């Protein structure tokens, strides 16, 4: 359970309605493993009587004493929500702590990761929270995702001294912008390691998570001593956010969780007005299911009242969501993924393409996300693997899909080709990615259009319009054409090769000569979905599990002890509609037919958490089972 309210100048009665009974009520209703509550938000006001930082204007009661006393007595861990890089009050009192933007202006929100803020305020305050309240840890918000390029004089001087580059870039099109971006990224890593190491030296048991560190926004090996990984996925379109973010955290080698905002709506209407409504139980249960199916922990975020109290009626919502999670904990938490499809996240390429330090507001991740959604919409169990995670593990995956990365490092290309040569199946999405493998694909590129152009993709007699980048190619032996597209909505005209498949060593390499991912997010069509499914099937005809009966089902395959766990999550309903803030109907799907490849006949197939056996047939190494109805989430345990 996560609570925060980001104290402001108007916070003049903090703690007025916070009581031990309130905290007891939360625990009695929800039975959480841990609670996170507010201590310092983005405005920089502390919501407790700090002696180090800047207190909210009015503190009627020390809320942290209450939270800690009750949680300790009830055996519930207590963590604190603390805003890191984003601290308005720190800058108001110390303008020299601010980062400096591209125009030479001091930022009024973000402190410099290179400056004295971390030593003069952040670390002393975190020590104060540890020593005074004996809290279990801190969830640092406003950290990697809030850091920006820093043009402070000492930062520029250090960059020039370290790199020898004297020309300072100010825009993505300037020379050395990537080098300066990397320098600023390393500045954040140094800041992160510094405060974590210092706090751990102070108290080795003090647990620290930096929100979104080493996630999709920071796609690299874990290089700081964080105790767990965490993030809060999107306010709207949360199901698709969870699908992406959970897969990016899962393989980083640390405990992890994801936080759902318990409310839907818009961040700001104007004049700092928030247009939020509490989500329904079923809405939040489905958001939880996406995370549970991928074996992660789950947080629920509820806002506190301006005085620090909760809204009691919301705990009934939390209670039902928590019961949903608890019912699945024994068959989900810490389950190990079974390799099927690996979707390749080239973190080094992301760092070249993204204009922000650790964010993707510019759309740099849309191609990856779009390809992920196509694969999930075709019921493929899919993992996202960053380059460092796949190193040494490529052979475990029957197929690797490389989305639309415009560049790859030479060693990445070499490793992917070696994987295919040794028997792996490699699917390349988009002309820019395919061009990097032109020799292996046995194709000549005749014309490449980096601009968006309208084409009409054909599949099984239907056409779908796509506005996307394309390439025209000439195939050499032994490359085989797969599918075609037309220049207009007319199949009597000449067509162009859409994709190709080529034998390569003991494996195969396939490629599409049009971009897919971003377009699928913006204009989903069944033709594109089915075309990619057919292409994947050519490379990967025998997945461990196939599910038919609905495309609105996510499949996640886990190993639970010696048993196979088949997670099925219903993704129907308006969860991606930005105009729908709250909905309480998730249309059931089914019946679903599940085909399971088994070396031996299973003794039984149990449906959890309902705990009943499903009848099945077994023939020629496959068990066939029918699930009559899927409401939100079930796990089929094959014994």
Topology, number of strands: 33
> What shape does the CA trace take?
globular
CATH architecture of the largest domain: 3-Layer(aba) Sandwich
Mean pLDDT: 96
Count of separate structural domains:
3
Distance between the termini: 34 Å
Summarize the structure.
This protein is α/β, with parallel strands linked by helices and about 650 residues long.
Description of the molecule:
Residues 34-152 form the Glycoside hydrolase family 29 N-terminal domain. The chain starts with a strand and ends with a strand. The protein has three domains: 33-55 and 77-227, TIM Barrel, CATH 3.20.20.80; 339-539, Class I glutamine amidotransferase (GATase) domain (Rossmann fold, 3-Layer(aba) Sandwich), CATH 3.40.50.880; 545-638, Immunoglobulin-like (Sandwich), CATH 2.60.40. The mean pLDDT is 96. It is an alpha/beta fold and 639 residues long. It is 30% helix and 30% strand. It contains 17 helices and 33 strands. The chain has a nine-stranded mixed β-sheet with strand order 17-16-18-19-24-23-22-20-21, with helices on both faces. A six-stranded antiparallel β-sheet has the order 15-26-27-33-29-30. Helix 4 (117-133) runs parallel beside helix 6.
């Amino acid at each position: 359970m996560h609570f925060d309210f980001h104290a402001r100048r108007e916070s003049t009665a903090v703690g007025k309605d916070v009581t031990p009974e309130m905290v007891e009520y939360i625990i009695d209703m929800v039975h959480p493993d841990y609670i996170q509550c507010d201590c310092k938000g983005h405005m920089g006001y502390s919501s407790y009587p700090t002696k180090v930082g800047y207190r909210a204007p009015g503190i009627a009661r020390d809320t942290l004493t209450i939270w800690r006393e009750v949680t300790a007595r009830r055996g519930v861990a207590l963590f604190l929500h603390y805003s890191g890089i984003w601290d308005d009050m720190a800058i108001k009192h110390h303008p020299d702590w601010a980062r400096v933007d591209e125009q030479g202006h001091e930022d009024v929100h973000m402190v410099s990761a290179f400056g004295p803020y971390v030593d003069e305020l952040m670390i002393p305050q975190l020590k104060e929270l540890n020593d005074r309240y004996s809290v279990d840890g801190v969830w640092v918000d406003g950290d990697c995702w809030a850091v920006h390029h820093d043009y402070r004089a000492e930062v520029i001087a250090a960059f020039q001294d370290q790199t020898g580059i004297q020309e300072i870039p100010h825009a993505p099109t300037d020379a050395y912008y990537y080098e300066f971006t990397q320098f600023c990224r390393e500045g954040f890593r140094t800041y992160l390691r510094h405060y974590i190491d210092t706090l751990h030296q102070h108290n080795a048991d003090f647990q620290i998570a930096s929100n979104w560190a080493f996630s999709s926004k920071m796609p690299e090996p874990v290089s700081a001593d964080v105790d767990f990984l965490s993030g809060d996925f999107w306010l709207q379109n949360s199901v698709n956010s969870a699908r992406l973010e959970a897969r990016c955290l899962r393989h980083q080698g640390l405990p992890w969780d994801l936080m759902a905002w318990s409310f839907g709506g818009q961040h700001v209407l104007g004049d700092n007005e928030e247009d939020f409504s509490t989500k329904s139980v079923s809405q939040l249960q489905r958001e939880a299911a996406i995370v549970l199916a991928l074996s992660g922990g789950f947080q629920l975020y509820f806002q506190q009242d301006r005085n620090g109290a909760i809204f009691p009626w919301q705990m009934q919502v939390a209670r039902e969501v928590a019961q949903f999670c608890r019912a699945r904990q024994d068959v989900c938490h810490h389950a190990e993924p079974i390799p099927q499809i690996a979707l390749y996240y080239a973190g080094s390429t992301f760092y070249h393409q993204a204009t922000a330090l650790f964010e993707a507001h510019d759309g740099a991740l849309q191609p990856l996300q779009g390809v992920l959604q196509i694969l999930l919409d075709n019921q493929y169990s899919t993992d996202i693997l960053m380059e460092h995670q796949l190193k040494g593990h490529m052979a475990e995956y029957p197929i690797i899909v490389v989305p639309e990365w415009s560049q790859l490092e030479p060693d990445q290309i070499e490793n992917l080709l070696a994987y295919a040569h040794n028997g792996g199946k490699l699917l390349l999405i988009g002309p820019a990615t395919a061009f990097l493998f032109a020799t292996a694909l046995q194709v000549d590129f005749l014309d490449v259009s980096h601009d968006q152009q309208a084409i009409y993709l054909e599949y099984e007699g239907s056409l779908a319009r796509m506005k996307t980048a394309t390439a025209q190619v000439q195939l050499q032996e032994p490359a085989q054409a797969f599918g075609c597209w037309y220049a207009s909505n007319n199949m009597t005209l000449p067509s162009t090769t859409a994709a190709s498949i080529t034998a390569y060593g003991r494996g195969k390499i396939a490629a599409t000569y049009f971009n897919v991912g971003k377009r699928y997010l913006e204009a989903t069509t069944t033709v594109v979905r089915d075309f990619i499914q057919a292409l994947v099937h050519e490379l990967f005809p025998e997945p461990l599990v196939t599910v038919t009966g609905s495309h609105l089902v996510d499949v996640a395959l886990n190993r639970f002890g010696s048993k196979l766990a088949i997670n099925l999550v219903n993704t129907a309903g308006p969860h991606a509609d930005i105009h729908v803030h709250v909905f309480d109907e998730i249309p059931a799907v089914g019946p679903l037919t599940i085909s399971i490849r088994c070396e031996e006949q299973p003794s039984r197939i149990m449906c959890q958490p309902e705990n009943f056996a499903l009848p099945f047939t077994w023939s020629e190494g496959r068990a066939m089972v029918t699930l009559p109805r899927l409401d939100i989430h079930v796990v089929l345990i094959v014994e």
